[in-house]
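Saturday, quiet lab. Running sequence design on the structure tokens for the scaffold JK sent over.
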């Protein structure tokens, strides 16, 4: 697995760097020869560092060690930003090469005609590649330094048919995808706690992906996590990252079992009610509200399918208003809507809105929408509703561009 990771990663880096170097060389060709030499050496030195870093990451994971957090989050993040920026710039060079190929074929077919493809135009396209790569580079750096922890309060009214009067006006806060293994300090979490307290919620839902790889990542933050509490309880579920499946090999069953058990103990010690295909009935003056929670279930093959709604509904009454916590929104499309019309609202996370996109009044876009039909915000079909939280943390890219980290405040009506 790790050898495959190294081979694929090195191949991508080398192909992109070789291709991009042509544009880079054109961009610096008017500098003094000594400066050109310096920048070219620096360019390939960086490429070498990227490859060494990949070997180092693979070594840590193969020896079952968590890499140093700063390297795991920010060094990796910077390398990721530079690579993505180069890939975008490289598309212009590919366009240039494709146009050159077409011109070559045309010359072969009609050799007596005059075909123009000026040198200045070719140089312009290559230099444009540098400018094109600078735009995503600047945006991604800004998202890392300025908006990664720009926590946003989103308020959402949920109108639920047949909601018992005792629960009208109930205030629920949902957070999701903390990915706490990416937090260098506890300062952002302290800010989250304060923002949640200011909302004065009756209930809190935490919809999965507390950690990145292993349960131990949460241990240093337990004192702060204990403060995420509400008078009627904090209810949580597991996400695809909470099982240790991205750290331990398929055959390492004992290690996965330890991770699973430790994750349950962590939720218990911080006072969260972890719902593992089960439910909790809230009662006020003989009125009932069923909180259901399932383990992770994702439609993609690479995601776990541990969620069992039928088990989670055991003990519920047929006319109970049911709120479901399910990490992956594809569960709503594939299982909830077709087979469980009695579930009024499903609360999910998982997508992060890919941590990149555009959200302005009347318009919402993210690459996430090409992978998930429901990827951020509220969705309705008939009388059933789904809310997809954009997440609080990050993984992979250590930032947010356009899709800000979210604390959702619901009022039932």
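Result came back. Writing it out in full:
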């Amino acid at each position: 697995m790790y050898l495959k990771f190294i081979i694929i990663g090195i191949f991508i880096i080398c192909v992109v760097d070789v291709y991009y170097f042509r544009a880079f060389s054109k961009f610096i060709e008017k500098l003094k020869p000594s400066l050109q030499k310096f920048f070219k050496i620096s360019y390939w030195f960086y490429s070498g560092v990227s490859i060494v870093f990949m070997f180092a990451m693979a070594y840590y994971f193969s020896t079952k060690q968590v890499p140093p957090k700063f390297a795991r989050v920010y060094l990796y993040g910077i390398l990721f930003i530079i690579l993505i920026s180069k890939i975008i710039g490289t598309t212009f060079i590919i366009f240039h090469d494709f146009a050159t190929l077409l011109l070559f074929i045309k010359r072969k077919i009609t050799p007596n005609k005059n075909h123009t493809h000026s040198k200045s135009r070719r140089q312009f396209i290559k230099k444009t590649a540098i400018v094109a790569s600078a735009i995503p580079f600047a945006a991604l750096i800004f998202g890392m330094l300025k908006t990664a922890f720009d926590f946003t309060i989103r308020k959402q009214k949920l109108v639920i048919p047949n909601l018992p009067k005792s629960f009208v006006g109930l205030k629920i806060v949902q957070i999701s995808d903390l990915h706490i293994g990416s937090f260098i300090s506890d300062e952002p979490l302290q800010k989250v706690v304060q923002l949640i307290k200011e909302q004065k919620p009756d209930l809190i839902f935490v919809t999965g992906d507390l950690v990145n790889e292993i349960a131990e990542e949460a241990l240093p933050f337990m004192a702060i996590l204990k403060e995420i509490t509400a008078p009627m309880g904090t209810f949580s579920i597991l996400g695809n990252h909470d099982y240790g499946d991205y750290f331990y090999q398929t055959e390492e069953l004992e290690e996965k079992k330890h991770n699973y058990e430790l994750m349950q103990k962590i939720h218990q010690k911080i006072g969260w009610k972890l719902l593992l295909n089960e439910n909790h009935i809230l009662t006020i003056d003989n009125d009932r509200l069923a909180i259901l929670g399932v383990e992770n279930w994702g439609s993609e093959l690479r995601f776990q399918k541990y969620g069992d709604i039928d088990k989670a509904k055991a003990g519920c009454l047929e006319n109970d208003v049911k709120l479901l916590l399910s990490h992956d929104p594809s569960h709503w499309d594939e299982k909830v809507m077709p087979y469980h019309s009695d579930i009024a609202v499903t609360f999910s996370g998982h997508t992060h809105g890919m941590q990149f996109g555009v959200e302005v009044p009347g318009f919402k876009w993210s690459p996430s929408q090409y992978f998930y039909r429901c990827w951020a915000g509220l969705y309705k079909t008939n009388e059933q509703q789904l809310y997809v939280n954009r997440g609080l943390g990050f993984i992979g890219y250590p930032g947010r561009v356009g899709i800000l980290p979210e604390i959702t405040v619901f009022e039932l009506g």
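Notes for JK: The first strand starts at residue 152 and ends at 158. The two ends are 50 Å apart (CA to CA). Ask whether to fix the surface positions before the next round.
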